[in-house]
């Protein structure tokens, strides 16, 4: 009987998953069979666009694992030979479905093998250095958690700045800014390292979701927004950040937008946002009215932080080892223009060094499921995105956007930047949003002849800042919202205000700073 119930339960779950997939499947099928090939869109481009669109919609409308969706898309594209192969005779790109056919220009036969080459192309994204950089950085972040260096840093900041409620907020922001270059998963950084400390602070101050929630809500909102702001300031601050740079550098060969360029552009507007963030949220949440009655609580929390630091003792050998390796990696990333060392190689060197020193164990690597899962789905997405670009689908969409902007006589860079920022509202994953739209918006900018440095900067920084509007934009936002301190309406209203603030700062101070840098 129990076995029958399990079978019925599994069948019901499978049916529910299939029903949730219907909208994405319907749109994918409509594009696959409903769009006619023309001189802009080949059959391969249409198939790629159908699978890509279907995957993105499924990410928004279903709870199915992203890796399952990507694997399904790769298998479908490989089985239908909907990839671009390479003709071994001429070295030119050719649609896999045309392998073995006559080249209409040279009258020679395309020397490629459709089935095997299509499958080979489906694996190309897994050799991307960008994907491996993100994978390696996940493990560096794991080391921060394993050695408890992140917790020590957070407690230290609280003990130093926690004598005032605003001081606690600034300690949270500063902790994020210091950890972000080394912990590339904003969810792991915010939810795994900072959030437990923030919740502990709120509880010690006597704030719970049912009793005096405003104070705890303020601190959690600070943590969530600081998480997104820190993710925007560094190339290694969030997993999808390198995707923006990879596409921009590919589209604009003279751009060379690397780690230091990213940081140089973000440092002024980012730090101004960081300086204003706690005070703005302080006012938005009405905390100033409670400041006097809670001042004694802040004294307690600083004492608590010092006690915690005393209980964990002095820094361990492993923590010192990790500090040396992380600072060495940061130094090599900063000086990459001189050393010529690839950023991914530097990150892998750091991991190998930590393993040989015993700072972390291979078990920490093998059990870091977030890293392996990201390697899988991101490698697949990179394959599809690259193929979309090579097949001309990305350029086609970019041209359509640029034509609309030209037709309406709108300023291109502000329109593209604001549109990219606002479209994060539709996504429950900042990574999915970046993969879905960054290539299209960059292609649109290229068609309009925009300044590549400025457009790349806007898309790079807005990729994470746009997540401030909702409580579902990324894993860290969902985790900060989950305790129940902040209502959904409050979260959205604060998010919209912060969105307006970010847009104002980057379109005024940001553009002014980039002007001084000679970017436009």
Structure explained in plain terms:
- The protein is built from 23 helices and two strands.
- It has 520 residues and is mainly α.
- It folds into two domains: 39-122, no CATH class; 148-315 and 392-516, no CATH class.
- The protein has a two-stranded antiparallel ribbon.
- Strand 1 (84-86) and strand 2 (93-95) form a beta hairpin.
- Helix 8 runs parallel beside helix 22 (475-481) and helix 19 packs antiparallel against helix 20 (430-448).
- The longest helix is centred in the N-terminal third of the chain and has 33 residues, at 2-34.
- It starts with a helix and ends with a helix.
How is the secondary structure organized here?
Elements: H1 2-34, H2 43-61, H3 66-79, E1 84-86, E2 93-95, H4 114-122, H5 129-146, H6 149-161, H7 165-179, H8 186-204, H9 213-233, H10 241-251, H11 259-284, H12 295-312, H13 317-334, H14 336-339, H15 343-357, H16 362-366, H17 369-391, H18 393-407, H19 412-422, H20 430-448, H21 452-465, H22 475-481, H23 488-516
Antiparallel strand pairs: 1-2
Helix pairs in contact: 1-2, 2-3, 2-17, 3-4, 3-17, 5-15, 5-17, 6-7, 6-12, 7-8, 7-9, 7-11, 8-9, 8-22, 9-11, 9-21, 9-22, 10-20, 10-21, 11-23, 13-15, 18-20, 19-20, 19-21, 20-21
Number of strands: 2
Q: Provide the spatial order of strands within the biggest beta sheet.
A: 1-2
| Rg value | 24 Å
Mean pLDDT: 84
Keywords:
72% helix, 520 residues, two-stranded antiparallel ribbon, globular, mainly alpha
Give the gist of this structure:
A two-stranded antiparallel sheet has the order 1-2.
